Amino acid sequence: MQNKHPYKEIVKKNNHTIINCKKCGYWHVYPMPTEEELNNYYETRYYENLGQNRAMTDKLNDSDGFYMMQYYDRLRHLTRLLPSDLPKTILDIGVGYGDFLRFMKKNDWETQGLELSQSACEAIKDKNSLNIKQGNINKLLGLGFNKCSVVTLNNVLEHLREPLKVIEIVRDNLLLPQGILLVIVPNDFSILQDMLMKTLLKENYQKHYYWTAHAEHLNYWSIKTMKRLLLNNGFKIKYLTGDFPMEIFPLMGEDYILYPEFGRKAHLKRIHFEECFSKVNAYGLKDKLFEAFAKIGIVRGVHIFVTRWEKNKYR
Predict the structure, then answer these.
(1) In whole angstroms, what is the distance from residue 289 CA to residue 242 CA?
(2) CB within 8 A of 214, min separation 6: which ones?
(3) 259: how many CB neighbours lie within 10 A of its CB?
(4) Nearest alpha carbon to residue 200 among 162, 243, 253
(5) pLDDT at position 242, please?
(6) What integer pLDDT is reported at residue 311 of this predicted model?
(7) Pairwise CA distance, residues 195 & 198, whole Å
(8) 3-class secondary structure for the chain?
(9) Is CB count within 10 Å lower at the N or C end of the chain?
(10) What is the CB neighbour count within 10 angstroms for residue 140?
(11) Where are the domains of the chain?
(12) Nearest-CA neighbor of 310 among 184, 178, 138, 185?
């Protein structure tokens, strides 16, 4: 392992070995599953498994308005960052059930999307009007997508065998000059996660590195390592923000890690907190707060808005 992917640290969890790779610059599973194994999992089992998951049920119904709140914030940031002379066109890679693209289309954006899972695509009744195609992400260039002003990779890169390859394809072939790539990934091996292992979970070794429990997560980035990956591959950062730092709840005594039944309660409190900003139209204050969370590295998910360097070899 050290020859091909030399590492600084190693974690063994749920029959997986995860390394802090010196070559790649971030934590990842090693060895990686084969392309065939991965394709079979996402095409046949991933969304079927999610169907049993409360989070996916919430996303489909959005009874709490949580995802709509997230999408509105995302649209606000894109509207502010995108040059006014660029068309309102977006490509979402890994659309899931198409809810984000549907939101964007309702706000007068021209949409395109890719989804690997056949079952997920079959569940999208308006996939033709949203221009969603089902296909392998490794065949992205052959699917006939047009260049767009915005490309989004929302919780996608952590699932891929070759995340850099997809970033390069977007950079060179799918993003218009001055367009925005939005990358959203979990912020893992973070300060708060480390604090939890040293305090609340100190004696519970089975729960150490609890965020690596997802079998389908192959890669793990922090804010620092994702910034470095993008900066080293032809992008400059336009804006950095993130999700509410959910690890605050177990640190305050609402331990959803050891007691998953507390998770729903914590989630609803987080929604209530964020809704208060919109009720008084305090979006500027909310943005400053979440920017500060990201700056010190405690967001749960990192949201990085980047654009290409136009005066270099990637043009």
Answers:
(1) 10
(2) none
(3) 10
(4) 253
(5) 98
(6) 60
(7) 5
(8) CCCCCCEEEEEEECCEEEEEECCCCCEEECCCCCHHHHHHHHHHCHHHHHCCCHHHHHHHHCCCCHHHHHHHHHHHHHHHHCCCCCCCEEEEECCCCCHHHHHHHHCCCEEEEEECCHHHHHHCCCHHHHCEEECCHHHHHHHCCCCEEEEEEECCHHHCCCHHHHHHHHHHHHEEEEEEEEEEEEECCCHHHHHHHHCCCCCCHHHCCHHHCCCCCCEEECHHHHHHHHHCCCEEEEEEEECCCCCHHHHCCCCCCCCHHHHHHHHHHHHHHHHHHHHCCCHHHHHHHHHHHHHHCCCCEEEEEEEECCCCCCC
(9) C
(10) 19
(11) 51-308
(12) 178
Please tell me the predicted confidence (pLDDT) of residue 57: 46
Instruction: Show the CA angle centred on residue 182, arms to residues 181 and 184, nearest 5°.
Output: 145
57 Cβ contact partners less than 8 Å away, ≥ 6 residues apart = 51
Q: How far is CA 229 from CA 40, 85, 138, 225, in A?
A: 28, 29, 19, 6
The answer to whether the beta carbons of residues 148 and 174 sit under 8 Å apart is yes
Instruction: Please report where in the chains the tokens 């999992």 appear, as a residue.
Output: 41
Residue 261 neighbours by CB under 8 Å, 6+ apart = none
pLDDT at 44: 64
Low-confidence ranges of the chain (pLDDT < 50): 51-57, 313-315
> How many CB atoms within 10 Å of residue 268?
12
Phi, psi of 124 (to 5 degrees): -90, 100
Which CATH architecture fits 51-308?
A: 3-Layer(aba) Sandwich (3.40)
Answer yes or no: are the C-beta atoms of 308 and 185 closer than 8 Å. no
pLDDT of residue 221: 98
